[in-house]
Specification:
The complex is a heterodimer.
Chain A lengths: L3 H21 L11 E7 L10 H11 L3 E7 L4 H12 L6 E4 L1 H9 L20 H4 E2 L2 E2 L2 E2 L3 E8 H6 L9 H13 L5 E2 L6 H14 L7 H6 L5 H4 L1 H12 L5 H5 L3 H10 L5 E5 L3 H5 L5 E4 L12 E4 L3 E4 L6 H12 L1 H11 L17 H8 L3 E3 L8 H15 L5 H13 L4
Parallel strand pairs in A: 1-2, 1-3, 8-9, 11-13
Antiparallel strand pairs in A: 3-12, 4-5, 6-12, 7-9, 7-10, 7-11
Helix pairs in contact in A: 2-16, 8-11, 18-19
Chain B lengths: L1 H34 L16 H7 L2 H33 L2 H12 L6 H12 L4 H8 L16 H26 L3 H9 L4 H12 L1 H16 L3 H6 L11 H11 L3 H32 L1
The chains are: A alpha/beta, B mainly alpha.
Chain lengths: ~425, ~290
């Protein structure tokens, strides 16, 4: 008797532990009423980014009464990466998982993602976007959005300096900043503590000053045909000009955090210009001041700028899913424009499929027009600006902001960092 | 017969602890070391590459820079935190009526999570934040700095947050040491006419040796593995000036999916922590015996 009690306790503990482990896996495939259980994990659909995912999921369950959806929200960025990486290694990840271009490459290389090349929507992905969803010429993910990245402009502040509209070229941007300074109004917020504002600014400017002339510049770079030394001179000179003219204090900028300070300051009306993605739109619109969201005004007087698009969130199917048919049906559902619409609307994003519509948000009209006219570049997250090279480039750009390197030396360093992406 | 049964019983009793230790400490450690000899990128397959990761590590200027930052950071935190903790304990030991209240207040920052403390200090350190405003208000505007934006001071600014959090912790450990000093010894010193400084240097400092050992060891282990503060406050910047080894490990594994390099860096950090803290502990233990 004395030994039975601990033995029972141990057995119970093992059963509970075993049950927990089973529950974590993507294995259990049907519920009590015989419906297929489909496990889905994503970093949108909860927390600060509900993104109408629940609405689309409800529509999917309604249209597929034989499938029961088990959606799990996982906080984005590091938390998502840590959780999913472990689950994929342990074969306990969900049947459908949210990915981005970088994860398509790394998880595709590891064989975690199912080949979706044969799905009906695969041929409809917007042409320039295909490399971002593919690994070794296999389509491994279905894109959900193209998120514009640009400059948020507080038009109320501009009006106080007698400026009627957001600038569309670089000389006008400088002139507007001059007027704001004269009127004692706040100007351009350039927080760069985490290192991504300068990277944004460089790429935002490059959308017009580099990619407008050479849309396939990234591919040419990866092939060793072009380099940064001349091509990216203008973007860096434009950033430098902001400091030289006294519109941005770069030392302060490097000591100011983008997320905890820069964004809240813009929302609080403490700056007139702030660079960011469309994913910030919902938060930035809240105070209700008159707002514009425009491409970086990088061109010469009278020219119109190109937009920068971030090929962000995507759905992929776990290669080890036991219910791959249901998983593919879920991804198919999301790829249809009428189903994707609520998500695009919430995200203020543009459809990644050919002929796909933009969200209906008027704030996005300038970006949508640029996209419709083919005046856009894609964030180079699948070529030279991802993972380790991106971290190094951010650090190099901080040195540039602090005056430790000039334009030429900075471009040489960026060339070296970016070249490591070729290996 | 009884002795043999006792030996078996002790083995049986120690087995669960050994099993847990082996499963959760030794096994991951061995797997981590083995991982560092591969080219693993987070996938289920990899290839044995021998010492290639270690060779890349010692030739990587970013890693060497991070090693230097880690050592400087640990040294600064060790000296200042221990010094402040000791000073506060020395003052409080002579003021029993306020000791409990003040030591509890000093301990409060240690109860905040490091991430939350980092967020609080990121507001204080911002260019128009609390510290610069305070300096301006008290007429010390000349001392204003871009605390986290200047590569020459950012590491020390982060170390200050660490010290702010844990100096109270050091103080409490030293106070426990003070409580163990026999009153007769202090009385004897007073009767012999020792000054306050002489009493501290000749009696208290010697009697506090075990507390010093504990403080130094804990401080070294904590500060050599520092991660949360630089991640939240600067993400290793500006210009890599606050990169630490733990931050590199995190980036290698979770940003770059370079698990093997992350494991190699983790082994380097482990060796550093074990060697430095063991050496410090050994020296201080010997000092305890001598004293």
């Amino acid at each position: 008797m004395r030994f039975i009690r601990p033995t029972l306790a141990l057995t119970a503990a093992l059963l509970v532990a075993g049950g927990s482990l089973t529950a974590c896996g993507s294995g259990s495939s049907t519920d009590s009423s015989g419906r297929t259980i489909l496990h889905v994990e994503g970093w949108k659909g909860g927390g600060a980014e509900p993104a109408n995912v629940a609405q689309v999921n409800a529509a999917f369950e309604k249209a597929n009464s034989n499938i029961k959806l088990d959606f799990s929200y996982v906080p984005p960025n590091d938390v998502y990466q840590q959780k999913l990486q472990s689950q994929l290694l342990a074969s306990t990840a969900a049947d459908v998982i949210m990915v981005d271009p970088q994860k398509v490459q790394t998880w595709g290389k590891s064989g975690y993602l199912a080949d979706l090349s044969g799905q009906s929507w695969a041929g409809g992905i917007a042409g320039p976007l295909k490399p971002f969803v593919s690994y070794q010429n296999k389509v491994l993910a279905s894109p959900m959005e193209l998120s514009p990245v640009g400059i948020y402009v507080n038009l109320d502040i501009l009006a106080k300096a007698g400026i009627a509209a957001a600038p569309t070229d670089f000389p006008t941007l400088l002139a507007d900043l001059g007027k704001l300074k004269t009127a004692n109004q706040p100007g351009f917020a350039f927080p760069d503590s985490q290192g991504y504002m300068a990277e944004f600014a460089m790429l935002l400017s490059a959308a017009t000053t580099v990619y407008q002339q050479t849309p396939d510049w990234d591919q040419q770079f990866m092939a060793g045909k072009v380099d940064f030394s001349t091509a990216f001179q203008t973007p860096l000179e434009q950033i430098q000009q902001l400091g030289a003219d006294g519109y941005v204090n770069f030392k302060n900028a490097v000591g100011t955090d983008e997320t905890t300070t820069g964004e809240p300051d813009f929302i609080a009306g403490k700056s007139a210009f702030y660079a960011g993605g469309s994913w910030l739109a919902a938060a930035i619109k809240k105070p209700g001041f008159k707002l514009a969201f425009v491409p970086w005004p990088g061109g010469e007087t009278g020219t119109s700028p190109s937009a920068l698009m971030f090929p962000g969130t995507m759905w992929a199917v776990n290669a080890r899913s036991k219910v791959s048919a249901a998983a593919k049906a879920y991804v198919d559902f999301w790829s249809q424009s009428q189903n994707l619409a609520p998500y695009l609307s919430a995200e203020a994003a543009i459809s990644p499929f050919q002929g796909g519509a933009a969200g209906t948000d008027p704030l996005m009209s300038t970006m949508a027009t640029a996209y419709g006219a083919g005046k856009f570049a894609l964030f180079p997250t699948n070529t030279w600006d991802l993972a380790d090279p991106e971290t190094k480039i951010r650090s190099i750009l901080q040195g540039f902001l602090l005056g430790k390197t000039d334009v030429a030396a900075t471009l040489t360093a960026i060339q070296s960092a970016a070249a490591s992406a070729k290996s | 017969m009884f002795r043999r049964r006792g030996r078996y019983a002790s083995i049986v009793l120690i087995l669960p602890a050994l099993a847990v230790y082996g499963l959760f400490i030794l096994y991951p450690l061995v797997r981590g070391v083995l991982l560092s000899f591969t080219d693993n990128t987070g996938g289920p397959t990899d290839a044995f590459v021998g010492l290639k990761q270690y060779s890349a590590l010692i030739h990587d200027p970013t890693a060497l820079q991070a090693l230097r930052h880690t050592v400087i950071y640990a040294a600064v935190v060790l000296v200042v935190q221990t010094g402040l903790g000791l000073s506060a304990a020395a003052l409080l030991s002579r003021r029993p009526h306020i000791r409990r209240v003040v030591s509890s207040m000093l301990l409060l920052p240690a109860l905040i999570s490091p991430v939350m403390a980092s967020f609080i200090w990121s507001y204080l350190y911002r260019p128009d934040g609390g510290i610069d405003t305070l300096l301006g208000d008290v007429g010390l505007g000349v001392l204003r700095q871009t605390w986290l934006g200047d590569p020459s001071i950012a590491l020390y600014a982060i170390a200050a947050v660490n010290i702010w959090m844990f100096a109270g912790y050091s103080c409490v450990i030293f106070l426990a040491g003070y409580a163990g000093i026999p009153a007769e010894l202090l009385d004897a010193a007073d009767i012999d006419g020792a000054t306050r400084w002489q009493r501290f240097r000749k009696v208290e400092w010697a009697m506090l040796a075990p507390s010093l050992t504990v403080n130094v060891t804990i401080s070294l282990i904590g500060s050599l593995g520092v991660f949360d503060f630089p991640l939240v406050l600067t993400n290793g910047g500006p210009v890599g000036s606050t990169n630490t080894l733990a931050l590199l490990i995190y980036r290698d594994i979770f940003n770059n999916s370079d698990f093997a390099m992350g494991a190699a860096t983790a082994v380097l950090l482990l060796v550093l922590v074990v060697v430095v803290s063991s050496a410090a502990s050994a020296v201080l233990r010997r000092r305890e015996r001598v004293l």
